Amino acid sequence: MTNKPLNVLFLCTHNSARSILAEALLKHLGGTRFQAFSAGSSPHDKQQPNPLGLDVLAHAGINTAGLYSKSWNAFSGPDAPHMDLIITVCDNAAGEVCPVWPGHPATAHWSYADPSEGDATEAQKREAFRQTLLAIKRRLELFVSLPDDKLHAAVLQTSARALAQS
Residue 1 domain-assigned? Predict the structure, then answer.
């Protein structure tokens, strides 16, 4: 790997919960080796990150400044940052036809249940967000600890996909 950070894009359907958690966590854990982004395949008009997700991040000491919901189209154009790895974090987004990404980045799918789904109480949903954050954190800690040779373009997809089993 060069001194250039590895650009990682986390995708979900609405870009309001899991992908936002993953973006914030990788920014927190990744140091200068990684740049994290997130987007959604079909965010609603005026979509915002889920307040419970932002609260759980803040309580974990993770910076939430600058997090906002956006469409994956923001990363598919010629002026978009070049992505090295794209990770879907929800099963819906994983099954969708993605844009053609410039540079043909590596891809992986890390499945997490939607912590905002269902008719649970606010306390139960908060706990679901906390558990999702912990699950993503465990996988991202393994990811950021990979040696540079596992992050080289030729093996990045295999490395990232293997972490889905962690």
Answer: no
How many whole angstroms separate alpha carbon 164 and alpha carbon 43?
A: 25
> Average of pLDDT values for 109-127?
92
What pLDDT is stored for residue 129 in this prediction?
97
* 130 and 56 Cβ atoms separated by less than 8 Å: yes
Contact status, residue 26 vs residue 62, Cβ threshold 8 Å: no
* Alpha helices in the chain, H assignment, sequence order: 18-29, 51-59, 91-94, 122-144, 153-163
Q: Is 1 helix (H, G, I), strand (E, B) or coil?
A: coil
Q: What would the two tokens of residue 7 be?
A: 């650009």
pTM: 0.91
In CATH, what number is assigned to the domain containing residue 154? 3.40.50.2300
